[in-house]
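look at this fold:
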Amino acid sequence: MSAQQSELVCNRIIENFLEKLQPFGLDRFYYCIIPDELSNVCIVPDEQANTQNSDSNEELHFAKMIDLKKMRFAVASDPEILKFREEFLHRFARSDEGYQLSGPSIRKRYNPYIWPENTMPERRKKSFEQLLNLHKIRTRMSFYHPVKDKKGWIGICNLFSCNGREEIIGNMSSASNELETLLREFAETFNALAFKTINPISNFRVLSPTCVEILSLVAQGCSSEEVGKQLYMSERGVNYHIDRARVILTARNRTNLVSKAYQSGLL
């Protein structure tokens, strides 16, 4: 199932963004927050999380735990662009040279980064071209923007156009600074409005919905025993989820865990 549009950003703001993108020949987009591969902050696999010392203050490496296919929400121009994303990640991403080059590290050289044209192996080019034609996409672009006060997280705006790559480059040649300013402005707007749905911890299911529900009850002052009774779980099961959350959020205790859950947009 493809990601859904976050309902926390109203259509008026999205339409305003699309209107300002028109002079550059860009007509569709989706925005989300992902781990920054250039940061020291990364992620722990599920099977290792409960073996970590939950009192440790070491920063975790989030990037290794994120599965981009599991994204639940994005700020997007339309639902169809999210369907394109879903099919691309499942069928073509591993073979696409442009995708391999488009990670956050590309911003050290290009930001925005205009993807090369169809770089699929010969045997996959035709089927990928059909997918692009189906969604009226000729050019793809990525822009990265650090998330304020969130070390290790970075916003990515993937933009699309029905126009050719050379035309987009020409549109940008005399106004690249204006485009960067525009993309930064709206990235910050999306972060401010939609952070609860697009923060990577819940958006990529690093913490399960059950774990987030438990955190919500803990934030209300419930004990593990009380949480277990409400959710029909054993106290041990509740504590497992709490300990896992403490590891992921590097929290010292329950009070600190609740605080960090709010700061991370989970609650």
